[in-house]
Amino acid sequence: MENTFKYLFYGFVGAFLCIILFIGIFIYKAKRGINFYHTDPIELPLNLGEKSILVFSKANGFRHSDAIEASLPIYEQIGHENGWKVFATEDAGVFNELQLAHFQVVIWNNTSGKVLTDDQRTIFKQWIEDGGGFIGVHAAGDDSHQWAWYEDEVLQAHFSHHNIGQDLDTAMLYLDRDAVNHQLSDGLLDTFDLADEWYCFYDNPRAQTSSVLYTVDEATYDLSGNISFLVKDKNWGMGQDHPIVWYHEQKEGKVFYTALGHSPITFRHQNFQQLLANAIRWTGNF
Ligand SMILES: [Zn+2]
User: Fold this and answer.
1) How far is the CA of 139 from the centre of ligand 1 (A)?
2) 5 C-alpha to center of ligand 1: Å?
3) Mean pLDDT of the chain
């Protein structure tokens, strides 16, 4: 009998330690990524034309598997409708000078963690500054990338947290007056509601050179990013002005970032598809 209690006790302790270890690895992977690099040039299709888009979905940190899977046919469809070539990969080997030169737009489609080596970063930075079009989607704006230039100058906002209470919370979005007469707002709704995961940033990208396409109304969802007893200081938002989609020029290049895109629901939303098409057209100078 005594032995049974002993085994039960060790069983519970073991299970508890496993759970703590699992949560620890999960948080570490989401915040810092477990980083793997690829540097060999990849095989590209021969028929890339003058208007080609690279959709890059590598996830070294948290992986938005469902969103990535749902997004690929959407990019393909947008490309097809507009006569643009879309090439999708998770292999960072494509970030070399010769192969990047085939693309006018690069989309970081829910990328996470440190996905490029230092040499690849230098090449990609130069590619953007020389006139490339960059689009970051959702996790491309979280804090797992460990790249100061990228966070400071490309994103122009530092990620704090996302709401936790309800995984997908429906909130209202408003087209911003910055963009009303901009080509990026062509065909977009002035206001719409969407179920997504809401990112909160320490700083407002408007304070730098960004213009805002959409803001989210914080009064319409639960802001809290607190995780029970583990994280207690994340029940706050950005206030009246909470940008959720923004854009700016980066030397000769253009940058567009959307914090929307956590789940397939977003990619299937007609207004989001229009937003992506507009973003590609603008960043790529198509
Ligand atoms: Zn997410």
Assistant:
1) 6
2) 42
3) 94
